[in-house]
Amino acid sequence: MTATRHTAPLPGTSGLARASGRSMFTKTLYDNRRIFAVWALATGVLAMMYGSFYPQLSADAMASVPEAMEGFGLNDLSNAAGYLKGAVFGLLVPLLVTFYGAATGARMVSADEESGYLDLLLAHPIGRTRLLLHRFAALTAGTVLIALVVLAGMLAIRTSAELDSISVTNFAAQALHLALLGLLFGALATGIGAATGKSRPVVFGVTAGVGVLAYAVNGFAPQIGADWLRHLTPFHYYIGGEPLKNGLQLADAGVLAAATVVLIALGTWRFGRRDLGR
């Protein structure tokens, strides 16, 4: 009679580990699950907190907004859509999403190349293009999660914060525009890292710097009589069409999506031809 031999499972061969190893996409999702969750919760809580202040807004507060801030969406606080456009979706939330795209995009290639782990990954049967696209798909999933959490948070306080004048459809449209903004800066960071091989801090710094500069240009351009400059920034296409009032802006969303595709395509093209040893 032959005895049955039991062996302990090897490390990393649990069901979850095997599932996450089926593709670079699912592995990247699993490895970054805490990062994505923290970004989503932080952004969602911030949006809910500022959104809930709307019933407490007084006429004096509306009149005390500095003229220099009107370009950031604080030009009409007399209704719910105008308030949210400025106080929630025009100030901190888009900046947080921009920094998420910059920080996460810098991790997708630059962090692995900096640590030497990229060589190990590419030693396996996975091409550079597939690696980059799977990584970016995981970043996309994280961005969608942030937008969904923000949307859920706003719908949760919609009645209590007297935001009922904004339809659920328009809230969803604003969340979609928010996701597209995050994807654009994620594509910029991922593309820069893939194309240049620069370190993660450098890639993050450049991308975040571009984001802050574009944000400032979009906000201050009206003050210097140069509204046309707004059309050169992604923030104009993110919120210039006022999705909370007018619903999904197909042309604006198309510009953000097209720019994202171009950035990730250029990064992928350069990544496939670049000498990774330099």
TrEMBL record:
| Keyword annotations from UniProtKB, A to Z | Membrane, Transmembrane, Transmembrane helix
Q: Membrane-spanning residues where?
A: 35-54, 83-103, 136-157, 177-195, 202-221, 253-272
- Which GO-annotated molecular functions does the record name? ABC-type transporter activity
Q: Pfam families, alphabetically? A: ABC2_membrane_2
Kindly indicate whether the keyword Lipid biosynthesis belongs to this entry: no
Membrane as UniProt keyword: yes
One Gene Ontology cellular component term attached to this UniProt record is: plasma membrane
Question: The organism sits in which domain of life?
Answer: Bacteria
Q: What is this protein called?
A: ABC-2 type transport system permease protein
Native source species: Actinomadura namibiensis
